[in-house]
Amino acid sequence: MKNFYGAVCVFVGLLTFNCYGASQVEGVVFHDENGNGKFDRKEKGIENVYLSNGTGLVKTNSDGKYSAYIDEQDDILFVIKPSGWKPVRDEFGVSRFYYIHNPSGSDDEQYRFKGVAPTGKLPKSVDFPMYPVDEPDTFKMICFGDTQPRTQEEVDYIAHDVVQELVGFDAAFGITLGDVVFNNLALLEPLQELVSTIGVPWYNIHGNHDINFESADDSNSDETWARLYGPNYYSFNYGKVHFVALDNIAYDGEKRYHGELGEEQLAFLKNDLATVPKDALVVLLMHIPLNTTDDQKEVYDLLDDFPNNFTIAAHWHRQAHFFLDEEDGWMGKDEQHHLVHATVCGSWWSGAKDENGIPHATMADGAPNGYSIVTFKDNDYSIRFKAARRPADHQMNIYAPEVISSKEASATQIAVNVFAGSERSTVEMKLGKNGIWMPMKLTPMFDPYYVELKKLEPKLPKEAGRPLPNPSESTHIWTANLPKSPKAGVQLIQVRTTDMFGQTYEDKRSIRIE
What we know:
By secondary structure, the protein is mainly beta. It has six helices and 33 strands.
């Protein structure tokens, strides 16, 4: 979906712009009191609501009216949802906060996947109904990394592995951080129907596998996405938090891509953040990790004026926390927390199937597939990882031999993979009821269990499951040696960890000492 590719625009100040070769659009953002979706004479407009064409922003006046410019051939105008209001949502929980202007349409018959149908002549008034809603200062967001199904069978994996346990969960909304599907865009709709059973509004980020790879270039690669979800990038407010959904997939053609926002999206981000109070929490959501995006420095420069910020991506199919500083180009007062999130599909639905017919899908860093619950409170946040179909307190794996001699104890290394751990986590271990808690050391390494899984694969029949990817170094493994000369018998190795948010988890594993 193009934004101003055929228009020449001159910005006047920060939030207004004049465009040549573009169409002027007018309308109203209003309180739809009777719920009919139309602006009726007695209904009131909502003032100070921002709208964007993907580059500049305009603001509604005291009557809720606005005037903007959009490309006369192909563009999207969207509302930046203010706190305390919600837009129209369809039956599958997708917010319809935008208007697509594409008079000729983009539904090219040469492509397998449908694009945007012709929208025809620009209406005299493009209006956006909104509805008041209570938005508390403390709320939860469900966060999915790559769901990425290839087939309907893999959509069904998502249903039974993740979605079922979330039905009815008390969250404000959920979001999928890109690679919603795996190249098969026909699965976007059945997957959205499935996710809607959770019962909360849902947002989606554009990923590299959500591209129509039949398109020769970037300009038409996202038309199926536009038909279903509207703009590739946008922002919205909830409570005291400002969220910006970014599209950092630059399609190079011939199934090649790289991480980049580009000039227009950076202009949008700059104009958007200019409307946000400096003490607000700003959350940037994207697919490719920010620290591997070409124009990361430009993003840092726009974000570092906000002391309360958090950025999150997926894409890597492993989990890692980064705390960016001056060496990384971040010049903010405090380090910038960037989370590369675990994926729902884990290792692309690889690995042997369990008793329920679902691949275990362990990621290459040894962490299980799953999702997170992010809790926001005023301008702060905390994250709790949830392994798919596991108890909520399953936060680590302890690797130890089954049996050792007492003489070998002090040379026996115990490894603990804390799935959502970071360099700001503390991890301790003790042996037996009367043991002394000992600090464990963060030790980037291959996960021992995962290495064993890979060794077993040649012995499995092909129908057991898709081969796992090769191991990747895990950034969340801690190690320590057992104490010297422990008592013989079955002993419990106990581990406890406290994360950067003050959340403490405990686990244990037995070891036999001879």
